[in-house]
């Protein structure tokens, strides 16, 4: 059986990129296709608190069809302890922090990050 790591990595980047414009930091936690999602997107863009809440509150749309649910909430900044960080995916002024991932998942996320012109680093 094929492992869903690569599709999950791509889905995670797609989820996080639009949220990169939320300003501040957005913590995302839940599951997609049975895999735990625990990541945070942080940006320095100046948006109002109202705009931030619209972009990062409640549940990430469109995941029910993938068998998942991800809750999002604003945080002051992304916590330390990420297994890897993708800086500026798709040229967005953001960093995506990935937590609680296996080495194989982190490798897939690194490949997805770099394919989207992002810079990968380990924390």
Question: Layout of helices and strands, plus pairs?
Answer:
Elements (H helix, E strand, L loop, with lengths): L4 H15 L4 E9 L2 E9 L5 H7 L2 E2 L9 E7 L8 E4 L6 E5 L4 H13 L3 E3 L2
Helix pairs in contact: 1-3
Q: What structural category arises from helix and sheet content?
A: alpha+beta
Beta-strand percentage? Answer: 25-35%
Shape: globular
What about the largest sheet? 7 strands, antiparallel
Write down the overall mean pLDDT: 79
Strand order of the largest sheet: 3-4-1-2-6-5-7
Rg over CA atoms, rounded to whole Å, is 13 Å
Estimate the helix proportion, in percent: 25-40%
Question: What are the defining features of this structure?
Answer:
7-stranded antiparallel beta sheet, disordered N terminus, alpha+beta
Characterization of this structure:
The protein is an alpha+beta fold and 123 residues long. 28% of the residues lie in helices and 32% in strands. It has helices at residues 5-19, 49-55, 103-115, and strands at 24-32, 35-43, 58-59, 69-75, 84-87, 94-98, 119-121. The chain has a seven-stranded antiparallel beta sheet with strand order 3-4-1-2-6-5-7, with helices on one face. Strand 5 (84-87) and strand 6 form a beta hairpin. Helix 1 (5-19) crosses helix 3 (103-115). The radius of gyration is 13 Å and the shape is globular.
